[in-house]
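From the methods appendix. Each design record in this collection lists the tokenized structure first, followed by the designed amino acid sequence. Records were kept in a plain field format so they could be parsed without special tools. The example shown here is representative of the layout used throughout.

RECORD:
FOLD TOKENS (434 positions):
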């Protein structure tokens, strides 16, 4: 099968760091084993979506947001209390009651229309009491001030009502987007054939629960095939592109003779969609993809990268990034060159671990701009059970990043074990996405 496509190594994604695992290069890894059959079990789980998986896990930003919200709710009443107190305690010529006009304006930020009107009424009543306490005449000065305060209150109430409508619309759009995301991304099975799988998936808060990361693992005849990818950008267009690639992978993984054939079908699927629906924003997206094939009868893992970061392999205490010999360019990237897909074969024996991840992990930086030291962290966690690695990674990334988990973050931990059957996630694991 012709395995040539746009894909020069010099424009590809991340290669391995110093001291990397040395691969054995092949160009068609599965052709010697014959055509893979269709008798596989799809690695899908329950259709219901996790309730909390897409929400950011770091508590610091959430607590700060809650504090700012409560402070915003209290500010109008602080003005209602502080302005008259200052007016009473200072000289008559110092008119602090004029600051009461700010109370309804501040209330419109966090309170509803009725709450804003109530704050405005309190401000008007307080102004009247202060004027009477100073012995002022109600007309015409007080009437003019009250008229201005009433106009500001009405405008603030209308503004609050418009804000609430926008918040409802945004919440509805966010819920639809989240439903679309989890209709595409199902939890991975805990065990698939001869490998155990553990997933970390966190959509960024800025993405409103919708990101471009996607993943899939399937049991096929003779082994397990895994895809991890990242679509350019965020939003529903990214989810649409991810859905196309996932559907193409599900179809090709069972019958394709090797990883290059799967990559070709991914490329063809995006090209056909761009021709069929050129007006769709998803048709302009490209995606980095990492394909992995773990045969049941060989202690190796075969890897093909289309612009995606190389995985990290752990064997005992030794943790090293795989050195990909010639990664291709991302899927659907319009680069007019012709280069073969290259498959790297790396030792992967029982007990070994491999972490596949997106750039939300590899490109996390601290306050000084230093990249996240993934290899170093995995060495420190070498003795930890596989079940704990996704949680440890998520917490450590949130602490390390200058802005927490501010990008879509996906990682799949693959542990080589003995032969087994597909095991779906438990209910609790389904809820937390790990």
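DESIGN:
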């Amino acid at each position: 099968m012709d395995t040539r496509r746009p894909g020069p190594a010099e424009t590809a994604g991340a290669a391995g760091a110093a001291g990397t695992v040395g691969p054995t290069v092949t160009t068609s890894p599965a052709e010697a084993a014959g055509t893979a059959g269709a008798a596989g079990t799809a690695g899908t789980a329950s259709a219901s979506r996790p309730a909390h998986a897409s929400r950011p896990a770091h508590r610091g930003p959430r607590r700060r947001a809650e504090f700012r919200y409560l402070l915003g709710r209290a500010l109008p009443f602080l003005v209602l209390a502080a302005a008259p107190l200052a007016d009473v305690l200072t000289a008559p010529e110092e008119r602090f009651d004029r600051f009461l006009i700010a109370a309804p304006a501040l209330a419109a930020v966090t309170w509803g229309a009725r709450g804003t009107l109530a704050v405005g009424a309190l401000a008007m009543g307080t102004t009247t009491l202060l004027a009477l306490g100073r012995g002022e005449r109600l007309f015409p000065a007080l009437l003019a001030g009250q008229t201005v305060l009433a106009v500001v209150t009405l405008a603030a109430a209308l503004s609050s009502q418009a804000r609430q409508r926008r918040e409802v619309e945004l919440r509805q759009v966010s819920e639809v987007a989240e439903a679309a995301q989890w209709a595409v991304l199902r939890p991975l099975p805990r065990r698939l054939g001869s490998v155990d799988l553990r997933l970390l998936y966190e959509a960024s808060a800025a993405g409103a629960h919708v990101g471009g990361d996607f993943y899939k693992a399937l049991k096929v005849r003779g082994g397990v095939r895994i895809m991890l990818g990242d679509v350019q950008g965020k939003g529903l267009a990214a989810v649409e592109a991810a859905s196309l690639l996932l559907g193409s992978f599900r179809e090709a993984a069972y019958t394709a003779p090797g990883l290059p054939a799967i990559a070709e079908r991914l490329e063809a699927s995006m090209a056909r969609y761009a021709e069929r629906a050129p007006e769709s924003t998803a048709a302009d997206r490209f995606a980095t993809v990492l394909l992995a094939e773990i045969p049941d009868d060989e202690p190796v893992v075969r890897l093909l990268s289309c612009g995606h970061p190389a995985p990290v392999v752990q064997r005992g205490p030794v943790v090293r990034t795989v050195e990909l010999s010639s990664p291709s360019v991302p899927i659907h990237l319009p680069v007019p060159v012709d280069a073969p897909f290259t498959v790297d074969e790396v030792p992967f024996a029982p007990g070994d671990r491999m972490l596949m991840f997106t750039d939300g992990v590899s490109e996390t930086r601290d306050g000084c701009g230093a990249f996240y030291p993934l290899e170093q962290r995995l060495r420190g966690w070498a003795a930890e059970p596989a079940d704990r690695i996704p949680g440890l990674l998520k917490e450590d990334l949130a602490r390390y990043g200058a802005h927490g988990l501010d990008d879509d973050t996906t990682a799949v931990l693959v542990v080589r074990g003995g032969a087994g059957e597909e095991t779906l996630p438990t209910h609790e694991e389904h809820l937390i996405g790990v």
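APPENDIX NOTE: The radius of gyration is 29 Å.
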